[in-house]
Amino acid sequence: MGEFDDILFGDHEILWIPGPTEMYPEIRAALARPTIGHRSQACKDLMLRCRDKLAPLFGTTQHVLFESVPATALWEAAIRNLVPKRSLHVHCGAFSERWAKVARACGREADEISVPWGQANRPDTLRAKLAESSYDAVCLIHNETATGVTNPLRELASVVREQPDTLVLVDAVTSFSGIPIDFDELGIDLAFASAQKCLALPAGFTVYALSDRALERAATAEGRGWLLDFVRAQEGLSKGESVATPSIPHLYALELQLDRIAAEGLDARYARHQAMATRMRSWAGDRGFAMFSEAGFESDTTSCVAAGDLDVAWFVKELRARGKFISNGYGKLKGQTFRIGHMGDHGEAQLEELLSDMDACLVQRGSPT
Q1: How far apart are CA 88 and CA 309, in angstroms?
Q2: Omega within 30 of 0 (cis) for the link into 246
Q3: Is pLDDT of 2 > 60?
Q4: 275-311 tens-digit pLDDT
Q5: Taking the CB of residue 51, how many other CB atoms lie within 10 A of it?
Q6: Domains with residue ranges and CATH for the chain
Q7: Which of 30, 179, 193, 316 has its CB surrounded by the most CB atoms within 10 Å?
């Protein structure tokens, strides 16, 4: 699993950015299947199969849903459905900061805990903040795409659960299906992820899981909208129906990818992502680079490397000329870091090809490898 066939893969630029990532040829073929009516029995059956096959990836026996929207919509839906008044946002980078902005745009109070970019959030700091005030929900980022940091989700969720009326909301956009989530075990109330990250599907589709108590909270919320009304969405999908017309091609591709993931095995899938991350860190260290992310909290899906005196824009450009597309640093880290998205269907053999091209660029620049 995860090995691309050069002939089937085709001649195009290979994406090693932190999403969207490369799609397996079989997935691209599934997207081109003839469409079906979204109220047909065939579509209902397809939706129910996708729902059931998603559950093991979340680690839940509760409610699994999906919608034809980007994951940004789930930031807003989480607030409108689950936060009557105040949320606490635990952030360590650009994307975790943005969720707080969304909460305020929805008319809610949003407090924040932050650490310098590159560091991970700590349970003790969260516990101290929760002792000062009460919140409807705590919003956590499992894997911060801007910095390549994976937060200690188990420990952070445990601290939140010390507050019986506070929900645990988790952005798992770049971790889901690449790093374990353990939704039920950790007592998470909402977790969501984009299709174009570790699931290696096209952008524009989001999967999410809800706890029973989150659904109960949503049922009492006013002004929770229509398309992303969690109660309406769950009631519909329980019958294989969607609130609005879903992206049928995404559903075809999702079921195929879920079957491929099951065939690989979740443990093997997580190990593959971990092996790629370990190799990436080893390469960086051997070339005199440091990881930007704090030691012990480096992501298994997105490596963020401190560039030192390397001209990152030049490096990205030279790699693109070789058919490999990595990412410059995000936001205030542009030019200071480069990021490698080793996720989805990428495998160790493909990573070695990328690293070989990266070495060639460094030699071209006059750097030792």
Answers
A1: 37
A2: no
A3: no
A4: 999 999 999 999 999 999 999 999 999 999 999 999 9
A5: 17
A6: 6-24+265-365 (3.90.1150.10), 26-261 (3.40.640.10)
A7: 193
